[in-house]
Amino acid sequence: MYSLKNDYSEGAHPKILEKIVTTNLEQCEGYGEDIYCIEARALIKEKLENDNVDIHFIPGGTQTNLIAIASFLRPHEACIAANTGHIFANETGAIECTGHKVIAMNSNDGKLKSHHVLEAVKSHTNEHVVKPKLVYISNSTEIGTIYTKKELKELKAVCDEHNLLLFMDGARLGSALCSQENDLSLNDISNLVHAFYIGGTKNGALLGEALVICKDSLKEDFRYHLKQRGAMLAKGRLLGIQFVELFKDNLFLEIGQHANDMANILRNGISELGYNYLVNSPSNQIFPIFPNDVIDKLKENYSFAIWKNIDDENTCIRLVTSWATKKDMVIKFVENLRCISKN
Amino acid sequence: MYSLKNDYSEGAHPKILEKIVTTNLEQCEGYGEDIYCIEARALIKEKLENDNVDIHFIPGGTQTNLIAIASFLRPHEACIAANTGHIFANETGAIECTGHKVIAMNSNDGKLKSHHVLEAVKSHTNEHVVKPKLVYISNSTEIGTIYTKKELKELKAVCDEHNLLLFMDGARLGSALCSQENDLSLNDISNLVHAFYIGGTKNGALLGEALVICKDSLKEDFRYHLKQRGAMLAKGRLLGIQFVELFKDNLFLEIGQHANDMANILRNGISELGYNYLVNSPSNQIFPIFPNDVIDKLKENYSFAIWKNIDDENTCIRLVTSWATKKDMVIKFVENLRCISKN
Amino acid sequence: MYSLKNDYSEGAHPKILEKIVTTNLEQCEGYGEDIYCIEARALIKEKLENDNVDIHFIPGGTQTNLIAIASFLRPHEACIAANTGHIFANETGAIECTGHKVIAMNSNDGKLKSHHVLEAVKSHTNEHVVKPKLVYISNSTEIGTIYTKKELKELKAVCDEHNLLLFMDGARLGSALCSQENDLSLNDISNLVHAFYIGGTKNGALLGEALVICKDSLKEDFRYHLKQRGAMLAKGRLLGIQFVELFKDNLFLEIGQHANDMANILRNGISELGYNYLVNSPSNQIFPIFPNDVIDKLKENYSFAIWKNIDDENTCIRLVTSWATKKDMVIKFVENLRCISKN
Amino acid sequence: MYSLKNDYSEGAHPKILEKIVTTNLEQCEGYGEDIYCIEARALIKEKLENDNVDIHFIPGGTQTNLIAIASFLRPHEACIAANTGHIFANETGAIECTGHKVIAMNSNDGKLKSHHVLEAVKSHTNEHVVKPKLVYISNSTEIGTIYTKKELKELKAVCDEHNLLLFMDGARLGSALCSQENDLSLNDISNLVHAFYIGGTKNGALLGEALVICKDSLKEDFRYHLKQRGAMLAKGRLLGIQFVELFKDNLFLEIGQHANDMANILRNGISELGYNYLVNSPSNQIFPIFPNDVIDKLKENYSFAIWKNIDDENTCIRLVTSWATKKDMVIKFVENLRCISKN
Description:
Four copies of one chain form a homotetramer. By secondary structure, chain A is α/β, with parallel strands linked by helices. Chain A folds into two domains: 2-7 and 252-342, Aspartate Aminotransferase, domain 1 (Alpha-Beta Complex), CATH 3.90.1150.10; 14-250, Type I PLP-dependent aspartate aminotransferase-like (Major domain) (Aspartate Aminotransferase, domain 2). Chain A is 41% helix and 18% strand. Chain A contains 14 helices and 14 strands. Chain A has helices at residues 14-22, 35-48, 61-72, 86-89, 94-97, 114-122, 149-161, 173-177, 186-192, 222-228, 237-248, 251-272, 292-298, 327-342; strands at 2-3, 54-58, 77-82, 102-105, 131-138, 165-169, 195-199, 209-213, 276-277, 285-286, 288-291, 302-303, 305-309, 314-320. In chain A, the strands form three sheets. Chain A has a seven-stranded mixed β-sheet with strand order 2-8-7-6-5-3-4, with helices on both faces. The longest helix of chain A has 22 residues, at 251-272. Chain A is globular, with a radius of gyration of 20 Å. The first copy, chain A, starts with a strand and ends with a helix. The interface between A and C is medium-sized, with 19 and 18 residues.
């Protein structure tokens, strides 16, 4: 049984793990003030080509979203997100638990567009409803699509016009940046959004996300929020070391590229066999639609998520690749599918 | 420069790290439902000699406290803690941030006694003040003292009488259980408190605490709270693997014992030189009082926390030992102190 | 200029005001423990024909909703409401501010049906999403429709099956109960929902709502929540006196009947002139659709809410009647409309 | 039985009630935007001799405190208050329920002094503890003492130096301002604090407090918070009308003066009989210490609060006067006491 269920089935990229091992006995400061966290911040700033940001390392993605958003907003302010947005659909009301409403806008491709934001703003104009203040987007999105530079610029423009904050959830930013369709650089992102995070967990780390705060007014006292919400690890070195390794050379993007390459093999093979997709997703998550009996046979050798019922005979599944996905396994998957499809 | 500043300066115990490395490429379920988390739960239940508990692995201590307490209490209910209690004194209002007041009782030795609880209950008897509902204790305490079985039984009795929950923060439970003065077993604890956590971070793990919920009514839906507060790691295996290693043989207690042994060497040496302590702390944290010029000289070779000003000429410092503290270093510390003291 | 904008433009029904005046100098207990609150509770229980309920008086409707819901739910639990539901659409995220998500279901007539509840339950089945726990309905709804006994029984059945709480917002319960289409009694309601409130503010009081808690497990410690959220008035008598007056004879229903009678005059007159409605609303709120130039002329003499743009030439407005609406004024409104329509 | 238990035993001052009656049938805007609220704001600004403030009317005191404080603070920020402060001691954790810790400083006379503030600031200097941000004081305090201009200036100075907000709870501001020992004017207060409220409930109104926001940055979007926390009454006129009546002439201070005069009669009489006080309180609350048998006899004719046990034979009680306290009753109380004391 081989799993294509998600991008967090295995542990860490071997280079990361090796660094954890070789530094294990060094004595470090606690709480994210160690030399590795400091070095990792410097390395990321270099890659961002932007020195005017604050960077904090946080164990997980939901935690990053909730701490950032709760620290950025006043009690009456709300988020705008796509209805597929992770904070709306997959985080057990984590944002609401901090007191803030998430206004969900229907989107077919997982992306929130400037017209969605405008619509939300226009329908929230007095004190009997919440005040939209933060626009939440994911790149890549929860269904594998990615934002273009044009789309991000349009979002920024509408945010600037209406005094909104633009926040990007980058749990799968590595894969997004390495997509063949991507035209955004890390520098672009740091200039176009007010805060974003660079996902480690789904891009080769054991755990950890790097929150990048770009807008000055959002930076103050952020470490208090980390501590208050339980995100300040005593052995913060664990996060710093991993991001040093991801960013000191090019590992972060190499991992994204590998995951995408493996997804491309799957995508090309599946397309050649004549199958369609729920959505065109040029990243490490693909959503092919198969007849149910094909899925039953695939299940004998692979695990994956059942995404959505299409009709009585067809179902959409999700296949996800990662740094650890093996080339021979995805080739074999396509071969298997070919055999199954012939019968 | 050698650090005796805390018990989280180094990484993980080598056995734990090795297990992380050797299992790295295995594909596991996410979110704490992997085989290692399952195995770790079984192993801990064995050591507890108590099968009727629920066990959850959580990245850090503050997070464990806040999630457990927020899930246990209704909005109007409050905690009772010693004024030195971690949730009152060191967690940036994490409990208040979830909506609950912490009623602090003054205690000289870091321990909350049954009479403190009774006093808090008696001064909170109507709806114009919060309703005390949860008694928070730490074992060992924040100043290194430990609870006796008698004290814990008395606390349980007053809790039972007043329908209160008894919760033990076990960030340093390993050291407490290995103290020469300890008479509590893990089984005792699981029978006397309604929930507690077994600290990994300060006892040899990279990160991670094992929350043990003993009282049935507190168990329902706990995983929702983990997710909602951002504590459910995608690669939950990372926590499971470490607790397997800590509990499959006797590593958890071996680490506590080593830390205590190192503290004993320090304590005996310091006492022999005629110094006093802020408090008698029979665990891995000791609080000697030194003349300020002695401290200045110690600072040349050691880092440690300045704990409390005693008078114009004397100050209390905190020395902490861990799994990683080296015997030759603590012997050398005592030697150094002897030399300094002679001059 | 005459206002048909809402049912809170005037002060209190004269009988209520008179009682406030005549009791003004009596010395009473504070905080809702006075003889009038006690009497009012007894009178309401009589009308409910149900002695097994707890009754609390709360200044306003949003406050009642948020305190009740926050006291009933654990942090991971959510509400289900119609997308027009007051807690979703008109309370500035008051429920989210207490930490709870509101799951909105699209409904054409403002009513949440059992199939909506079922759909919400079926799409929320694991700990990565909130757990639906409370079903919020309004009677009459925000667009003037009312629940039938059959609908309420079906809702109760689905709630019972899925261990959900059924909560009714009765801000306009007086009008609902007096509707020609109503088949529910107060007794029915107290048997079919777990908690509900009887609106005073929109039914002749200066302010005040009576929260009725029917389910035993929801009753405990409720006064703590009142105090904690700022709803326990020092001069609680003010609320008690008003509800005594509303319930000692039949004033509560007389007011609802009068409001409905006035709405009927409007409805009949408007219908006779051939106009349509956004929705069939058999209570004190009606939603006629008029050509824009008709609306412009009506505006010269009446104030009302513009509800919804229908098309380029037509708009829906909201007309609301109350205890204070004068018969000659609504007759005159219809006359005016007739004149305007002829030209 | 005559009650000296508190200043909210009776209803409203007759002039206020009369105004409510005479305006009852007027149609007004809802939600605090009616002509009476507008007029009341203008009148209060006149009395403040300060036009640069925002004024909001809120049903109760706890509600005012919690909404103001929650809207002013970010999640990691805390209040500093005297241990007798209403938000610490009498509001069921209302502030903590909004997520913020209250740091309590021991004070003998109910007043928070600048040295208390400084002490709190100095002991909260890193992100492992909350960040003190708002200084909460009550004037008069919960034990009847009042602030001098000098004390208030010193508090403001320390607040300015440490970037803290100064907030005054004026539930009993009327009595404070009319105290023989008072040297503060409303104008002084509006210049020295960043926000405060003028209590109506305990100064002759049926209910209602007027929150005055002096600091510009605290004003934005405040009405959203009112609505979100359930404090925006539909018939907001009820609050506006009362404050018009309190401030259009001099009624607010006349009431404070009457209450103080009645307290003076009690105080002088009790002192003449040789009794002592818990604290020197020059306002409408006094705290005499009586032998227990004297108290038992007083109880036959008067109700009052038992405040504090002094020793085995003596107890401190609280006597409170108000607009409604009758001169002949307090004279009679002193007579009664004299008789009791003689025997």
